Amino acid sequence: MSDRKPFLAGNWKMHKTVEEAVELASGLAEAVGSETGRDIAVFPTLTALPAVQDILLDSVIKVGAQTCHYETTGAFTGEVSAEMLKDVGCDLVLVGHSERRALFGETDEIVRKKLEAALRVELPTILCVGETIGEREAGRTEEVIKRQIESALTGLSAQQMATITIAYEPVWAIGTGLTATPEQAQEAHHYLRGIVRELHGEVADQVRIQYGGSVKPDNIAGLMLKVDLDGALVGGAALTADSFAAIVKYSEG
Ligand code: PGA
């Protein structure tokens, strides 16, 4: 067991009206109560963000945004900057989710700029990395996640690193029901922590690495037994209060 505090986060993606989001957030607040042994966050859509923040104001659950633009202001129709997220009291932002990379053309360079934007306003981030099935089958998993991590994290200070969580999300496991085995996840997490250690030294032992990809109430405990797994980034199973609360309250083996 490491002394890193488990961090469970729910990415709601493009789901929930404001009313539905409020219902989910209220249910979660009630189910999770005053749990302090674990860090918990949810990432609603921007339209539901203020209402969810209101509901969770007095709870232990933090509220983040799913992405941000890297410029501060300007002619970028449809975008929202890290400054604007900070302005509305957002606690966190997700950067580099594989859906952003695959569907919205986010390159490693753009991901780096977004991370820098979040750091500029001291907004803690979850940086997502992960390989596709083709890359895994071609034996390129390590090469791909190394490139993604080095591009995002090279040259940052130890203080900046302390505000970043990494989410290892193999693309083939996201939304597919195909979870990586605890062993596959541990192998990738151990490798990632080694890269962070090469770049930043000892702070690597403090950086939390979440696993993401079809995490469910019945597989979280097995994943969390692994020494380099420090939490989870959950999609589908974060959309109901019961299942996300069960994930948050997984029992330690
Ligand atoms: P999933 O999504 O849990 O539905 O696989 C995970 C994610 O995209 O963060």
Structure commentary:
It is a single chain. With 253 residues, this protein is α/β, with parallel strands linked by helices. It has a single domain (7-248), classed as TIM Barrel. The protein contains 11 helices and 8 strands. It has an 8-stranded parallel beta barrel, surrounded by 5 helices. It is globular, with a radius of gyration of 17 Å. The protein starts with 6 loop residues before the first strand and ends in a 5-residue tail after the last helix. The mean pLDDT is 96. Bound molecules: 2-phosphoglycolic acid (PGA).
Kindly report the CATH topology.
TIM Barrel
Relative helix content: 40-55%
Order of helices and strands: EHEHEHEHHEHHHEHEHEH
Proportion of strand residues: 5-15%
Which overall shape is indicated by the principal axes computed on the Cα atoms?
A: globular
What is the number of helices?
11
- Classified by CATH, the class is Alpha Beta
Number of domain units = 1
Profile the largest sheet: 8 strands, parallel, barrel
First CA to last CA: what distance?
11 Å
| Structural Rg | 17 Å
- Kindly name the structural category: alpha/beta
Unreliable stretches covering 5 or more consecutive residues: none
Provide the residue-averaged pLDDT.
96
